[in-house]
Design brief:
Layout: E1 16-17, H1 22-38, H2 40-57, E2 83-85, H3 133-143, H4 146-159, H5 165-172, E3 177-182, E4 186-187, H6 203-210, E5 211-214, E6 218-224, E7 226-227, H7 228-240, E8 244-249, H8 271-275, H9 288-306, H10 308-312, E9 314-318, H11 346-356, H12 371-387, E10 396-400, H13 415-427, H14 430-433, E11 437-440, E12 453-454, E13 463-464, H15 468-478, H16 481-493, E14 498-504, H17 519-535, E15 538-542, H18 554-557, H19 559-565
Parallel strand pairs: 2-3, 2-15, 3-8, 4-7, 8-9, 9-10, 10-11, 11-14, 12-13, 14-15
Antiparallel strand pairs: 1-4, 5-6
Length: 590
């Protein structure tokens, strides 16, 4: 991996960059961006032409055009999703590494699910169990050393995804779009230079080069930095295989939501309470979240000139994953923790509501509430992207909004979606919504009491796995979500908006001990969701591509393992490295 491909460590002694002032951003970009602006027409034309050719013919692993795609019969009659996530590669989630301890996708309070991080950390003999990546880094460094802990993360990141084999597999399946969850903490430094046996390198130096101190939790919480060079190499590999990727900033300092995916679990989120500065007269240097996004977009812009092949492999960006997820449920906080999404200051809220107001009585008005803080942050992120060169260079902005950030008590089923559509109408123009601005709303049956299925049936779920009629009735009702998503947004915004469900799965229940694992239910659950989304023109992305250490989660949450069970792929989703014993679900081929 050519980690030195992006940035010059000699010009940045600390290596890690995450929050620069607007002034330093301007000086950093300077002539480079002016040159980029002059190159927009040429690069944009090449990008558009290349995308057109690729969409018509595809691309081989050597970069050559392929004039024939695999026939549908090659997939054993299984339709492929529009795209797939590569979860827990550059942003960790514990249940991907739960192995035989797999129980819940959303690990309950007080439980620990992460058992390993292969290939270097495989058991209690090599390191601790863990809740989140900052928790793992801290405790792994305590048990071994910081240098060894950083090498564990480096080994995982360079071995989890095979740029040639995995991307070739995806391209052969006709999957040309990937969503890549990444950490907010990036570095220009090369982790291969870390020598655990070098006594001359201090922890202070390693921390500066390869970690980010969480600004809202202080020195006790540090994030393992992702090398920019690794991201660049991956995007180049995507371009080689005729694939494009969306980079999704999955975590933010302090955690933007509660849960293991926040990166700081079991700590309570602090992003919205400690770092969000939404007022116009706030000190921009203190608004860490917005600065992170500004810096990230600025770096991506430079790739068009500095790394054109990597830029070709980029489809778009997502500013934040599931912003303030569960804020609408934990309105008054949880246990001894206060609400993690406070309302905007009254003057800021009033001014923002004026911006969102419409005098059309047939349309939804965005109501006041703590969700305005999320809408304003996302609206500002849209504006940063809008003012960059990226839209004119053919790149997209996938804006993820989740209903559970909104207090929807005593409201109808689709009320939150209507509110989101009303905000989207004000935040974007019709032309933007049909070109580069994509609205992303995730959808899972696993947490819905109306849609879930379980081996032991009610009251743990809506239906029993073996009850075919009840299952099909529930799926007919629940897959209608895609049509309602499309019709609701069309009513609020007008026709033509680009829509996606950036996460979905074949799972029928969040607990693998209850979830249906028979192949018929898995197949039916997936196929009915796929057809409904296709009919509604909503692009779906399966969560996730692979989880070789996920044990019983794999049949419904790993596309690779799901397709193996369906007879599409020849090998199961597993690894030569051991992270406890895999649990073999019923009907798994031997």
């Amino acid at each position: 991996m050519s980690y030195g491909a992006v940035g010059d460590p000699s010009s940045n002694p600390n290596g890690v960059e995450w929050a620069l002032s607007p002034q330093s951003i301007g000086s950093r970009r300077g002539g480079r961006v002016r040159l980029l602006r002059l190159s927009i027409l040429v690069v944009g034309a090449i990008a558009v032409f290349g995308a057109l050719i690729a969409s018509l013919y595809g691309s081989g692993s050597d970069g050559s055009l392929v004039t024939e795609k695999l026939p549908k019969s090659s997939f054993n009659g299984i339709p492929m999703p529009h795209g797939v996530n590569v979860g827990s590669w550059l942003s960790l989630e514990d249940y991907f590494f739960a192995s035989h301890s797999a129980v819940e996708v959303a690990t309950p309070d007080g439980d620990t699910a992460g058992m390993c991080l292969p290939p270097l950390h495989t058991s209690q003999a090599t390191g601790p169990e863990w809740n989140s990546e900052t928790d793992l880094l801290t405790n792994l460094a305590k048990e071994t050393s910081l240098a060894r802990a950083l090498r564990v993360f480096h080994a995982h990141r360079t071995s989890f995804l095979d740029f040639d084999e995995d991307l070739t597999t995806l391209a052969s399946l006709g999957i040309r779009s990937l969503r890549i969850p990444i950490s907010w903490c990036l570095t220009d430094e090369d982790p291969t230079t870390i020598d655990p046996d070098d006594d001359n390198t201090t922890d202070v130096e390693l921390e500066k080069r390869f970690t980010c101190e969480d600004p809202f939790y202080g020195p006790d919480v540090k994030w393992p930095a992702v090398p920019r060079g690794l991201i660049v190499d991956f995007l180049k590999a995507c371009a080689k295989h005729g694939i494009t990727a969306t980079l999704d900033i999955h975590t933010y300092p302090g955690g933007s939501s509660p849960g293991t995916f926040s990166g700081v679990w079991p700590l309570w989120p602090r992003f919205w309470t400690h770092g969000d500065q939404p007022s116009d007269n706030a000190d921009p240097e203190e608004d860490i979240g917005r600065n992170l996004w500004i810096n990230f977009v600025a770096w991506i812009e430079t790739l068009a000139i500095d790394e054109p092949e990597a830029f070709k492999g980029l489809q778009g960006l997502t500013p934040m994953n599931e912003p303030a997820h569960l804020a609408g449920i934990f309105i008054d906080g949880k246990d001894n923790n206060t609400a993690f999404l406070p309302p905007l200051p009254p003057d800021v809220a009033d001014a923002y509501l004026d911006e969102l107001y419409t005098d059309d009585d047939t349309l939804t008005q965005v109501p006041d509430g703590a969700h305005l803080r999320v809408f304003k942050w996302l609206g500002d992120s849209v504006d940063v992207f809008r003012k960059s060169s990226l839209p004119s260079l053919g790149k997209e902005l996938m804006v993820n909004v989740i209903e559970y950030a909104i207090d929807d008590r005593n409201q109808t089923q689709m009320w939150s979606t209507s509110v989101i559509g009303a905000w989207w109408r004000a935040a974007t123009s019709s032309k933007e919504r049909s070109s580069w601005a994509v609205l992303d709303m995730h959808h899972y049956h696993a947490w819905s009491s109306d849609c879930s299925g379980a081996s032991d049936g009610p009251p743990f779920a809506n239906y029993t796995c073996s009850d075919t009629n009840a299952r099909n009735e529930a799926l007919e009702r629940c897959t209608n979500w895609a049509r309602l998503f499309r019709s609701t947004i069309d009513e609020e915004c007008g026709p033509g908006a680009k829509l996606m469900a950036g996460e979905m799965s074949a799972s029928t229940h969040h607990s693998v001990r209850h979830a249906c694992n028979d192949k018929t239910t898995l197949k039916t659950t997936y196929e009915m969701q796929h057809k409904a989304a296709q009919d509604a023109n909503v692009n779906i992305f399966f969560w996730s591509f692979k989880m070789p250490y996920g044990g019983a989660f794999r049949p419904a949450w790993s596309l690779k393992h799901f397709l193996y069970l369906m007879g599409v792929l020849p090998r199961p989703d597993e690894s030569n490295y051991i992270c406890g014993d895999h649990v073999s679900p019923p009907h798994e081929p031997k």
